[in-house]
Fold this sequence. Notes:
This protein has one domain (31-199). It is built from six helices and no strands. Helix content is 71%, strand content 0%. The two termini are 46 Å apart. By secondary structure, it is mainly α. Helix 3 (52-63) runs antiparallel to helix 4, helix 4 (75-105) runs antiparallel to helix 5 and helix 5 (110-143) runs antiparallel to helix 6 (167-199).
Amino acid sequence: MRNENDVDPFLGSSSERQSLNENESQPWINYLVGAVVSPSVISVIILLLLLFIPITVLVVGINYHDPHYCPIEPHISTFLIVHGSVLFGWIIFTIIPTILAKKLSSNDDPYISGIIVIILSVMTIICTIFLIIWTIVGSIWTFNVFYWVTYYYDTKNNFYPYNYCQPELYRFTFVYIILSYIFVFLQICYYCFNNMFNWK
């Protein structure tokens, strides 16, 4: 009769089998964590420093929110306010799971960890998709009036022509959208190359 402490030459001891099962269940959790959270403390610090971008976008959008600042396309300031708010939330929401991931990795129950990470992943992905769609909408509003926009108005009578847009507002939005597309492109390249090297 075999003792339960005897080692099976193929499966090993019960403690080894349990350890093997835990290791097999962890990679998908680690993959999800890696897809959502920042990989290092340095990334978190960079994200914290990048908070000035959505704050600046919000300030410009709120400052020029009155329709008379851009009668040719009043939605430009709305685009900045919404985009800045969601981007601010996205950065914070990326930082928080990074901090939580340190605790999740030491959690004894991988299923609870997995559920939490899945929820965070879905929320972050929804937020990212919204930002991409909203950037496209903002691009339509901004680029559609590019050839007709004017930055001059009647200062004597304080009269704003129908095709006027405040220069700081329009130029800031124009450059910000282009930089947003460049950032998305670089991020896609980073994830593609990162996954390529990880699969090797």
